[in-house]
Specification:
By secondary structure, the protein is α/β, with parallel strands linked by helices. The protein has 15 helices and 22 strands. It is globular, with a radius of gyration of 23 Å.
Length: 470
């Protein structure tokens, strides 16, 4: 594949690095000379220092041979115009635009092709969806969900007193007495694909695959009770915070904008709950007035949480959950950590850089959502070869959990799992056939339309794609 990316900021850089590591050819277009120079020194790809709405720049980047054109600058208009220009001049590339401005959502932009743009991705909606999924699952860990609704993956950090601490996996399986799979263990700066004799150490991050019911039983044994969140504090009433608040308490009215309706369709129904006690804290007075009008049943407090005594004044200890969604990832993490020390049951923080997720887990936060990673994963689902359904990154993107379906052209159709030559450190986790969900076994013979979920290293993605499409 050949992918042209417009914008070498954090998302563009992360996406490009991930695709390059997979062995794909990438070109970056960046108008800022200093940013372009820095990216050229750090990534093995073509970098064009020019305006992305210029046909000359697009041709220099090789747009005429590209399979996908991804626009992720900080300017919606630039992203939309560049995608429209490419769509009108070149037939081949799939066009993807990052669009943040909610005003555009009053059109059919989010649900239909617009200006020749094949896919619109809103980073704020993607982040809010991830937060709300965490709330739905009790905010006890990060959650990986799949098109298959039976299985999910959650991560558990091994602490003092844990069922897992200094015990072999086979012994834990016998004690629990139900079926689950430990897909991978992160330990310090490396990962382990565990066997039955693998022993777990304190601070290990263990990724567990099973049904929601069985995972709840695991977390119950870890004394991490499932919480029914009646009292929630939301710190940060910006775009992401507003989307989250909509998902928690809002009812959609007849006169609602298309954006409101789209957001509601994306929000898990189990999350939205009438009568929930929600307090929103934001330091912007004008924004607080809008929030108070939008959520008449919520308590809106206009305060700066960095001021001394503010968090004590709002009586955090009486709340079940805190969600921090300000524009500062450092503030989000530290506010949530402090809230936990005051007795708040659960904490979810929004961060920008995915390496903050590791820091947050060390600080005893329950869930961290990386805005950039959710955005990159959404883009990867679109541009990857094969029938990719979901992509989840692990260990700073070194590993990925990928869900895909097999079609008639796949080279593995008719083969037993044991006979498939998989790349190194690749593990088939489970597959779905019709209404049946199966843990991977060597004697399972693959069939057309089977859904598979695998764990693999990033540099093995190209080989996996070839396996999927034949």
């Amino acid at each position: 594949m050949y992918i042209v990316i417009l914008g070498a900021g954090r998302i563009g850089y992360q996406l490009a690095r991930q695709l390059i590591d997979e062995g794909k050819n990438v070109a970056l277009i960046e108008s800022d000379k200093d940013v372009a120079r820095d990216v050229l020194a750090r990534l093995d790809c073509l970098v064009v220092n020019d305006n992305g709405t210029s046909l000359d720049a697009l041709r220099k980047a090789g747009i005429q041979k590209a399979d996908a054109f991804v626009c992720v600058t900080d300017f919606d208009e630039v992203n939309m115009i560049a995608c429209g220009l490419v769509s009108s001049e070149f037939e081949k590339p799939v066009t993807i635009a990052r669009v943040k401005n909610v005003d555009y959502s009053r059109t059919k932009l989010l649900t239909h092709p617009f200006m020749g743009i094949d896919y619109i991705i809103n980073p704020e909606i993607e982040a809010a969806r991830a937060i709300l999924r965490a709330v739905e699952n009790g905010a006890r860990s990060d959650v990986m969900l799949f098109d298959n609704k039976t299985f999910q993956i959650r991560d558990l950090v091994v602490k003092e007193g844990s069922l897992f601490l200094d015990r072999p996996l086979q012994e834990i399986r016998q004690e629990l007495g139900f079926e689950f799979l430990v897909a991978v263990v992160l330990r310090d700066d490396f990962y382990i694909i565990p066997t039955g004799i693998t022993r777990f150490q304190e601070h290990d991050k263990v990724y567990i695959l099973s049904t929601k019911k069985n995972l709840d039983r695991v977390f119950d044994r870890e004394n991490r009770d499932h919480r029914d969140f009646e009292k929630i504090v939301l710190v940060g009433g910006g775009t992401v915070g507003t989307y989250v608040a909509d998902g928690l308490v809002a009812d959609i009215k007849e006169e609602a904008t298309l954006l409101d309706r789209v957001k509601t369709a994306l929000i898990p129904k189990a999350v939205r709950k009438k009568g929930r006690n929600l307090q929103i804290i934001d330091r912007d007075y004008d924004r607080c007035k809008v929030l108070a009008e939008r959520y008449p049943d919520a308590l809106v407090t206009c305060e700066d949480v960095t001021d001394e005594g503010v968090l004590e004044q709002v009586k955090l200890r009486n709340n079940d959950l805190i969600i921090t969604t300000t524009s500062s990832q450092e503030l989000n993490v530290m506010t949530a950590v402090y809230a936990k020390t005051l007795g708040v049951g659960g904490a979810i923080s929004l961060v920008t850089r995915r390496n903050y997720r590791h820091i947050a887990h060390r600080l005893n936060l329950d869930v961290t959502i990386s805005r950039n990673s959710t955005m990159v994963n959404s883009i990867l689902k679109i541009i990857r070869h094969g029938n990719i359904k979901n992509v989840h990154a692990i260990s700073e993107g070194t590993l990925e959990v990928i869900e895909f379906s097999l079609d008639k052209a796949s080279s593995v159709i008719g083969k037993a799992l044991r006979d498939i030559k998989l790349p190194r450190n690749t593990l088939v986790l489970f597959l779905t056939r019709g209404e049946e969900t199966l843990f991977a076994r060597g004697d399972i013979v693959l069939d057309r339309n089977d859904h598979m979920v695998i764990l693999t290293e990033r540099d093995s993605i190209a080989q996996i794609e070839k396996m999927i499409v034949g």
